[in-house]
Amino acid sequence: MSFLNKEICDGDNPDLTEERRTATFDTDRMAQVIYGSEKFAARRRQITKSISRIPALQDTKPLAFMTREEKITEACRELDVLSDHWEQLIYVNDEEEALHLHREVIGMEGHPFALHETMFIPTLVSQASDEQQEKWLGRARKREIIGCYAQTELGHGSNLRKLETTATYSPSTQEFILHTPTITALKWWPGALGKSSNYAIVMADLVIKNKSYGPHPFIVQLRDEKTHQPLPGITVGDIGPKMAFNGADNGFLGFDHFRIPRGNLLMRHNRVEPDGSYLKPPHAKIGYSSMVKVRSRMAMDQGLFMAQALVIAVRYSAVRRQGFLEDKSQEVKVLDYQTQQHRLFPSIARVYAFIFCGLETIQLYEKLILDVNKNGDTSGMADLHSLTSGLKSVVTHFTGQGIEQARMACGGHGYSMASYISEIYGVAVAGCTYEGENMVMLLQCARALVKAVELVEEGHPEKLSPMMAYLTKPSVTVDLTVGPEAYVKIFQLIAKKQAFKATEQLHKFMVAGDSRDVAWNKSAVELTKASRLHTRLYILKTFIRRVESITDISVKAALTDLLNLHLNYELLDVASYALADGIMSSTQMDFIKNQLYSSLEKIRPNAVSLMDSFQFSDLQLRSVLGRRDGHVYQNLFEWAKSSPLNQSEVLPSVTQYLKPMMEKSKL
Ligand SMILES: CC/C=C\C/C=C\C/C=C\C/C=C\CC/C=C/C(=O)SCCNC(=O)CCNC(=O)[C@H](O)C(C)(C)COP(=O)(O)OP(=O)(O)OC[C@H]1O[C@@H](n2cnc3c(N)ncnc32)[C@H](O)[C@@H]1OP(=O)(O)O
Ligand SMILES: Cc1cc2nc3c(=O)[nH]c(=O)nc-3n(C[C@H](O)[C@H](O)[C@H](O)COP(=O)(O)OP(=O)(O)OC[C@H]3O[C@@H](n4cnc5c(N)ncnc54)[C@H](O)[C@@H]3O)c2cc1C
């Protein structure tokens, strides 16, 4: 039986068409704001169009029905097709275009080049000397070799100073000897390490003449370039299935006194001379730059994950009819329920806010690398580290929450893998852990905050970086009706109070005799709260700045509604701090709530178009529920019929066990 006939499915679902008709802005114009420029938004569309013309890149068997091996094979097949068309699809070496291409064709479940593009090449760019780049970067960019980033070990991920893999320099042979001294020293988790990569950046403790110099990056060949067999002295493999991201072969790696030439220590910023003398880098943490790079991308990447889930949930909510409001002759779209709007719209606002932050932090990282590589200027490192540490923690947490709400907003069908939301969720929440566990990174951000508070207390506010300047703002009474700046002022007061309270608590424990580390641990929850507020303030201000800069009037108006929702939702979410400190009155709270509810109504007619503006193709969405045509029920029925379980009427499990069991029961 098929309901996918022409009469029913010609054109898009009329409910969705109606939604698109009511939008007050142009989605192409909105895409320019989302993707940062008219040029890139247009390139994305062009790439999507080109992909749609390559038959070998169109959907095959649904991913949900594939085994892990099939997923990996399928990703590799697609990579091979992409490689044949690479130069006609994108500008070679354009990172954003390459990312878009991979996202659209291969999706988010991981693939052998996931770490090659995002960490292996960037590490060569930021850490390899010109000579070393000459040797490896070109080959990496041409994809003659596949690389990954091997840092985390079985026993240590967060605390890099305790990594156990050693790289001991031997002056007599001018080699480093890589060794895995214990089971906990095995590299564990690196993406694409297990089966695909033949090279890795390995972070190992540099040891010269029995002195440890801490983790340093080395480029290491893992496998024979012809046979792909692991080289002697190397043990490497896949760590097994994960919560999601199963198209990637996250791996383990051990070294048995494995020798590499001296020139394989990446030496842009530090050197080991043939005699073993060590030249220090200009900043102790410069070797951590690849992590900062990924963290600086995470607001954008996580924003796009949440956007995918919301495209699905919002489109579905405009098609799904259940229950009645005034008109009893027709059930309403579930998107008309206030609870549904409250469930979805604040996350739409966060998506836009996160993406605007991402656009900014990606640029900040690019600038930092230029400053460091060209001028040896490391002065921006500390600020970018604290900003991206807080940001990655806050956005991943809220993205997880937003995606889970999107799933629930789709009712039962959200729970089906046909929605694809469970995969999006599984992949997105990995971000709470990778690139630094969220609590650990919030505490990194707190280090900078505490230092800033101490500067204010010591009478040196002039030394504060611009991001911390709000810590000097005096308390004021704020009239919320004057607009966004009033919300910023209240948020600043809340964040400032918490930063001072947490620091005060830390100092109190120290005065009582605790060491700074112990006092820090006793204050850690309060410190993480301060970091979250500080980061949410940055997000809020970035959102305001971005909306103010928009020139298209209708796009600006639609985003202003979203911004107002964000301001009210965020302030309400942290209202307990404001009430406790007398920063806000209960009358102001009521005002915020009413503003929030009226924002929901204003956004309602634009909801579908606000999500359409992301211009995800159906191929990229991989969701039966969220397809652009909105023919949810027909598509779901077709999808279910393609389940392997439905390829025969009677399963072997029935003939082998259930039938005999029922027969036995009859006796
Ligand atoms: C790639 C994603 C792209 C697209 C997404 C698509 C799909 C996603 C799906 C799946 C995932 C795919 C890929 C995931 C890839 C993941 C890779 C990884 O996870 S790699 C491993 C990451 N590991 C970590 O992040 C470890 C976390 N730990 C640390 O970074 C450090 O240990 C820590 C910073 C916590 C502490 O370092 P330590 O050396 O001990 O320093 P200490 O705390 O003593 O601080 C001293 C001093 O240094 C300052 N500092 C620390 N780091 C930096 C830095 N990077 N820059 C500048 N300054 C730094 C620190 O603040 C302190 O300063 P003060 O003394 O306070 O002044
Ligand atoms: C999908 C995925 C992909 C990954 N890809 C890579 C990769 O490509 N390359 C790579 O090298 N690694 C990779 N990793 C590893 C990842 O970077 C680490 O798992 C991550 O940094 C967290 O470290 P951990 O596992 O040691 O957590 P742990 O530090 O063991 O965390 C456990 C708990 O301890 C707490 N904790 C730890 N230290 C502190 C502290 N100082 N203060 C307070 N609480 C603390 C944490 O908050 C957490 O609650 C990947 C991980 C995942 C999930």
TrEMBL record:
Gene3D superfamilies assigned to the protein according to its UniProt record, in alphabetical order: Acyl-CoA dehydrogenase/oxidase, N-terminal domain, Butyryl-CoA Dehydrogenase, subunit A, domain 2, Butyryl-CoA Dehydrogenase, subunit A, domain 3
Cofactor: FAD
Domain spans labelled Acyl-CoA oxidase C-terminal: 484-663
Cross-referenced Pfam families: ACOX (PF01756), ACOX_C_alpha1 (PF22924), Acyl-CoA_ox_N (PF14749)
Organism: Caenorhabditis brenneri
UniProt similarity note: Belongs to the acyl-CoA oxidase family.
Keyword Secreted found: no
Domain Acyl-CoA oxidase C-alpha1: 288-450
InterPro entries in the cross-refs: ACOX_C_alpha1, Acyl-CoA_ox_N, Acyl-CoA_Oxase/DH_mid-dom_sf, Acyl-CoA_oxidase, Acyl-CoA_oxidase_C, AcylCo_DH-like_C, AcylCoA_DH/ox_N_sf, AcylCoA_DH/oxidase_NM_dom_sf
SUPFAM superfamilies listed in its UniProt record: Acyl-CoA dehydrogenase C-terminal domain-like, Acyl-CoA dehydrogenase NM domain-like
Annotated metabolic or biological route of this protein: Lipid metabolism; peroxisomal fatty acid beta-oxidation
Binding site for FAD: T152, G191
Subcellular location: Peroxisome
PANTHER family referenced in this protein's UniProt entry, alphabetically: ELECTRON TRANSPORT OXIDOREDUCTASE, PEROXISOMAL ACYL-COENZYME A OXIDASE 1
GO cellular component: peroxisome
UniProt GO MF annotations: acyl-CoA oxidase activity; ATP binding; FAD binding; fatty acid binding
Catalytic-site annotation from UniProt: E435 (proton acceptor)
Gene Ontology biological process terms, A to Z: ascaroside biosynthetic process; fatty acid beta-oxidation using acyl-CoA oxidase; lipid homeostasis
Protein name (database record): Acyl-coenzyme A oxidase
Chain ranges of the Acyl-coenzyme A oxidase N-terminal domain: 26-146
Keywords on record: ATP-binding, FAD, Fatty acid metabolism, Flavoprotein, Lipid metabolism, Nucleotide-binding, Oxidoreductase, Peroxisome
